[in-house]
Structures are given as C-alpha cells and as structure tokens.
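Quick review question:
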C-alpha cells in the first residue's frame, strides 16, 4: 500500500506538459572527439554525458558537479523536466530526437571529465519560448531545434547548424 501511495505521489508531482503551449521537436547530436577526456599520457577516455531539460537554469548553473552527479533530481527539484544520461567513448556519437516539454526554457549539459578543475564540465543552451498551441499543427509540422554538442578534450561546445 505504501508503494502505491509513493507511486501516486511521484506521478502527481511529475511536471505535466502545458497544453496551451506547443511541443518543439529536438534533434540533438552529441559528438565526442577522438581526443576527449585525456589522461596524463594524453590517452582519450570515455565520458559520462547528461542532457537536462530545464524549466529554469538557475539551480543547474549554481550547483557543483558532484551534487548534480550524485543527486540531480533533488538539486534541480522543480526545474528538472527530463534527463538523458549515457557514456560516450572517444570518437563516438549519440543522437536524441524527441518533443521537448513546452515548459523547457533551456537545455543543460553535464560532462564527467577526468580533470574537473581544468574542464568546462557544464554548459546551458537557452531555448526560445514554446509558441502557443495551434489547431493547424495537425497538418503543419511543429518547430524543430537542431543542435550539435561537441565534446573536446575538456570543453563542451553547442552549435546550432544553419
């Protein structure tokens, strides 16, 4: 019974999409360069990557790496709308395609580089506000945001291709 109550509470507290706003499509390519995350001998190594859909970026931008790594759902509380987590090896890529929550105002990127003190391990990409929902979206495609995220030796670069 307690498990049922907990499941109900989780379902009720999950952010619900705003029906008055349109869902923007996301096409995201995350590319790890062959030289990503080098050790002392300049050998590349895999990295943990997390992509966050955020309602606001304040909590994400002010949190330290270890808080986000170990307890992101608590640290981000109401700002966290969705999360993807995966490991990329040097030279590997990952694509994510889905509809964003209409409340998403930014994407947060967190990368577990070996030398966090010298690395840019976090970046935020602000998104345009979701447009008002329209009846004609049944026949006219929704807006799409295309982004490429490049993971270099110790930096994250977000590129919006033309």
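Suggested answer, residue by residue:
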């Amino acid at each position: 019974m307690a498990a049922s109550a907990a499941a109900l509470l989780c379902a009720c507290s999950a952010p619900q999409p705003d029906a008055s706003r349109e869902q923007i499509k996301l096409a995201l390519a995350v590319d790890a360069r062959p030289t990503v995350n080098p050790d002392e001998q300049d050998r590349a190594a895999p990295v943990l990557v997390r992509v966050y859909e955020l309602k606001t970026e304040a909590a994400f931008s002010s949190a330290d790496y270890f808080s986000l790594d170990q307890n992101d759902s608590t640290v981000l509380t109401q700002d966290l709308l969705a999360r993807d987590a995966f490991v990329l090896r040097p030279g590997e890529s990952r694509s994510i395609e889905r509809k964003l929550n209409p409340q998403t105002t930014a994407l947060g990127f967190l990368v577990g580089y070996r030398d966090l003190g010298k690395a840019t391990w976090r970046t935020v990409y602000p998104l345009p506000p979701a447009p008002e929902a329209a009846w004609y979206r049944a026949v006219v495609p929704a807006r799409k945001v295309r982004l490429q995220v490049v993971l270099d030796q110790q930096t994250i670069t977000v590129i919006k291709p033309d």
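Why it works: Confidence is low (pLDDT under 50) at residues 1-14. The chain has one domain: 21-159.
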